[in-house]
Amino acid sequence: MLEEGRIIKGIAGFYYVQTLSGKLYECKAKGSFRNDKRKPLVGDYVCLAVVDEEKRKGNIEQIKERKNELIRPAVANIDQALVIFAQTDPQPNYHLLDTFLARMELLGIETVICFNKSDLDRDQAIYREIEEIYRPTGYRMIYTSAKEEQGLKELKEILRHKCTTVAGPSGVGKSSLINLLQSDVHMETGGISEKTARGRHTTRHSELIALDGDSFIMDTPGFTSLRMDEYEKEDISAGFREIREYENECRFFGCSHIHEPDCGVKEALCQGKISRQRYDSYVMMYEECKEKRRY
Length: 295
Hints:
The protein is of the alpha/beta class. Helix content is 26%, strand content 25%.
């Protein structure tokens, strides 16, 4: 008889499945998944066969149909994404943020942007820059300080009744925030390397963590780069809300919004309706996908 459950963690080919009865089993995936080029993901609902009840070991026999699936980070069945960047220390990498936002937008997954370490931006210069760039996009934004425990009430409300994948570069305080949101799982925290001014990776695998009865977060390893090269260059504009808003005003169908005349997007850019930084991110992604096709 098979038991139903959900994968809450995956490490080195082992999958830890929490069953409906609350038991936790260490499982291997059956070989046919590999033959079908399918791989279990954290967040998957599965059916497992128990092979050793005493040692809590089993085999994953079935992977149920997924609501959605992400490759970077590799998780499944999420309701929303929370991407965390530091407001400062380290300075936010806007292109990296834009790439994450574009990926989620193309997958139809709602994203909330969290800027942590707000206590370090004492003159609010970076806050004003962030607001100028991202407020017009319509994304929900929240400012937090794990050190001073600011913004936690609003953050918990955003996470309530949802399964949220939490992602961001290393060193932004992601693990510190997660530790404040729940008490059952303690995430290792790390600081900023003085030599590289970049964060040290502390999360080494994806993990599903319960906040309460129906609220979950999927903590995923920190990232320092993302690429869009699995997409075609024509797809990229759909990853930018503000570009979609104005591309119907372009003279030419299929306008790239880079070289063509009478472009509604470039006109909106000139009028300050689209952030120059966001537009530059779009162009970089477009060219990245264009180069992929060439080679």
